[in-house]
Amino acid sequence: MARSYQTVYDIFSLAAANGAANGAGLVMEVSDFRHLILALNTTGNGAMVINVQGSIQEAKPTFTSAASPTNQWTYLQIVNLDDQSVVNGTAGITLTGTDINKMYEINTNGIKWVNLIISSWTAGQLYARLKPFEDTLS
Question: Could you tell me which residue, 33 or 7, shows the higher pLDDT?
Fold first, then answer.
């Protein structure tokens, strides 16, 4: 089975030095892809919570607003590719002054929209890249 690899997308670049760093990244439509690999790199003693959000609704949801019947989304589980540990969606990745350079697979079965959201930011810079790809038959 051959793989059809796609472009790597910069989905979040946080180089801010103030509390305005909290918020959502670039919302991406990913329904054409089976696999999503997320690379997260922080510098400057990162202190923040990073969550991945996803939705199956047709229209792009507003991930910065509360989930509701007309704005359906949830937090997605991710798997650390280094040690296969699972990060539950609602918990997210909590950084408390230690920088990371890790890759994760996002659990995206049937997901149409994906987003990265940052909360509780007090320090550091975050750089996030997303690589979507699909298995194809040769």
Answer: 33
Per-residue pLDDT, averaged over 112-137, amounts to 84
Q: Which two tokens stand for residue 76?
A: 């997605």
User: Cα(125)–Cα(48) distance, rounded to whole angstroms?
Assistant: 9
Burial pattern 76-101, b for ≥16 Cβ within 10 A else e, equals bbbeeeeeeeebebeebbebeeebbe
pLDDT in tens, 85-98: 999 999 999 999 99
